[in-house]
Amino acid sequence: MLITIADLLTADEVAHCRGVLARAPWVDGRATAGPISAVVKANRQVEPTSREAIECGEVILAALNRNPDFLSAALPLRILPPMFNAYGPGEHFGIHVDNAIRNAPGSRERIRTDVSTTVFLSEPDEYEGGELTVETPFGVQSVKLAAGHAVVYPSTSLHEVTPVTAGERLASFFWTQSMVRDEGERTLLFDLDQTIQDLRRAQGEEDPHAVRLSFVYHNLVRRWAET
After folding, report:
1. What pLDDT does residue 38 have?
2. I need a surface site. Which of 28, 32, 74, 184 has the fewest CB within 10 A?
3. How confident is the model at residue 36 (pLDDT cuts 50, 70, 90)?
4. In the beta sheet, which residues pair with residue 93?
5. Full strand arrangement of the beta sheet holding 159-161
6. pLDDT tier for residue 22 given thresholds of 50, 70 and 90
7. What is the mean pLDDT of residues 40-63?
8. φ and ψ at residue 120, rounded to 5 degrees
9. Is 210 exposed, middle or buried, given 0-12, 13-18 or 19+ CB atoms closer than 10 A?
10. d(Cα 98, Cα 111) in Å, to the nearest integer?
11. 23 φ/ψ angles, rounded to the nearest 5 degrees
């Protein structure tokens, strides 16, 4: 399941994060890559334990917690602190899969990476190239969104960031360990939850069909969730 979320961040939040990141310490992006990914990775990242990364990460985490689409799609158990990267001309991240287990920066805590998220901080007309492409069962999906928009997709997917040929692509990225490990089960729950919400908007909160479907939804979560 690949979904996009419009306006995860407000325009003011995007501007704030860009201002903070402009003065942040940047390092070679290969510092946080596994041995295979490092071979195909050429970008820059904000030092993950820096004050600037923590400040902007808190803005994004607050936005995630108030966004029903993200919560429905990811069913988060743990979220790694958001990280930040930049791609300029000639920089890219070739085809790869995210590491299955990751450590929180500066911590011994480990999480299983079930769901990957990218939050775009540059407008599409600020750079050329730099599309996020994700291999899905329905073919390769190419994603290049407005600043403040996000894309959420399974961490099991092969994906890449195509070379930037002009300008600069600035984004946040992070991983979530879901309460529901299986991607197929998460997809079913997301579709069911979206149907319930549509029914409630159309028929009212007490619509009996929505109530019955809610009964099914929550009992499936009880069956499949890990806490």
Report:
1. 76
2. 184
3. confident
4. 41, 161
5. 41-42, 92-96, 159-161, 132-136, 139-143
6. very high
7. 96
8. -80, 135
9. buried
10. 12
11. -110, 15
The answer to whether residue 122 scores a pLDDT higher than 90 is: yes
Upper half-sphere CA count for residue 139 (Cβ side, 13 Å): 3
Residue 97: CA count within 13 A, CB half-sphere: 11
- The amino acid sitting at 52 is E
| 217 touches 196 (CB < 8 A) | yes
| Angle, CA 116 vertex, CA 21 and CA 218 arms, to 5° | 125
